[in-house]
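Below is how a single chain appears once it has passed through the pipeline. First comes the sequence as given, then the structure the pipeline wrote out for it. We keep one example in the README because the format questions we get most often are answered faster by looking than by reading.
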Amino acid sequence: MKHHKKISLVLGSGGARGYAHIGVIEELEKQGYEIVSISGSSMGALVGGLYACGKLGAYKEWVLGMDAMDIASLLDFSMSHGGLIEGDKVFREIHKMVGQINIETLPIKFTAVATDIVKQKEIWFQKGDLVDAIRASIAIPSVFTPVRREGMILIDGGVLNPLPISPTLSDINDQTIAVNLNAQSDKKYSIDIPLNELKKESSTAKIFFEMAHKAQALFFNDKVEKKEEMNILQIMGKTIDVMQNAVLKCKMAGYSPDIMIDIPHDTCDFYEFHKAYKLIEIGKMIVRDHFSIKQEK
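Resulting structure:
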């Protein structure tokens, strides 16, 4: 059964798990939902902003087309500026894809949420340059360098609001659907991954693992001796997950969506951006499961 409802879509933060947002959006459209507004933090802001300007298909094609060396070439490690990775190379590519476009001119209402660590408050970007807003929202603490703007130091919106429902409260819609990337779930999702994707994942993971260990040795005069020990990115990722879960519980006490789509937090680690194919497909699968269960009830 297809739904013909206008929805506000809230896309949460969660690092690489944000690729699942792509699959969620594709499946919601198949279900007949019309997205009239989007609010997002971090990867939610990136995917939501690209959808709002009509470039999500191009972005999906780009990330699925990258091999191990392509991904490695985008990691511009920083010696300073407050983060391991500058992020300039990634956002140059995104800017080529999107061009110069302001949020207020988008056909879909869009809000990117960032965190100002100077005044310790949320910043909502609802006008101005789209790519600049996304860059501020996605500045994962200690990983991507912060954005300095008008006296603010802006980092990942997920620090204060990992699932930003509040920007959609005044929207005229039939329902609000939120996608939580940090859900606690015992259910495991497995998909058939094509051999070429498995090979790409394996080779990219090896390169990324080596680069993460080199970065740890370079910046912290430390190195991981055993493969099973956590490197600095794994530790930071799990720390961020714990923090965001605590914040989310407080936020959900005040605002709750009509429908919650839960992506399990253990689907992948926050930095595993080489698993795009898997996560997109899992996003689709979870939406299909959600609505099939609703129909059975």
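The two ends are 14 Å apart (CA to CA).

See the next section for the split statistics.
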